[in-house]
TrEMBL record:
Coiled coil feature spans: none
Signal peptide: none
Pfam families xref list: DeoRC, HTH_DeoR
Protein name per Swiss-Prot or TrEMBL: DeoR family transcriptional regulator
Amino acid sequence: MNKRHQIILELINNRKKISVNELSELTKVSLVTIRNDLSILEQQNYVKRTHGFAEILDRDFMSERMDVNFSLKQKLAKYSLSLINEGDSVFIEGGSTNSLLARELLNFKGEIVVITVCTYIATLLRDAPFDVILFGGLLQAKSESVIGPLTRTCINQTHFNKTFLGIDGYSPDFGFTGRDMMRAEVINAVLNKGAENFVISDSSKFGLVYPYTIDSDKIKQVITDSDINSNMEKSLKNKGIIVHKI
């Protein structure tokens, strides 16, 4: 995704719906160029076009989870993509930043396998040129992910070498925590596999505490933004965690 595509997405996110003519004026490019840009973004499942207008695809998901810090999450997703290599078997958990990572993977050149518990991510990757494995389990509608004993059984019987996980909170005293018990159980099952584990989270999550414990000892790398609180960063590093600041 180039810089102009990011600007177009920001404009559509802010306006909810915007005309092609106005996009052309605001970005100072021709209507032909804007239409080509929108075609690319539509193919990547970012937007949909309707009679001279463009709007964000799937408003419920995008408005509630992706609109917040969209540009920042996009940067985190792009950086995460750079850590994936040909031949990797990659587990991608749910969440908005991981969903953006999945979209970036549509442009990945090379053979990989993507494994997920998130139905939204699996749908995004339905036309991907690589294998996608969607685990079974109890569908949690709000998170668009599967959870429960069947999901953990699938995790235990499948192998992967890299994981990208979302978290709800981190504090020096309690480590990584989650707001949902069943999702935390899935994350802990993934962490027990011994893969190279990456937590992707914007800095707003650091300093928050939620009820359910995530096995922090098995997390060795965090991808976040440069606004992370210095005390939080120091705490992570004191635990031997590598901090990738974007």
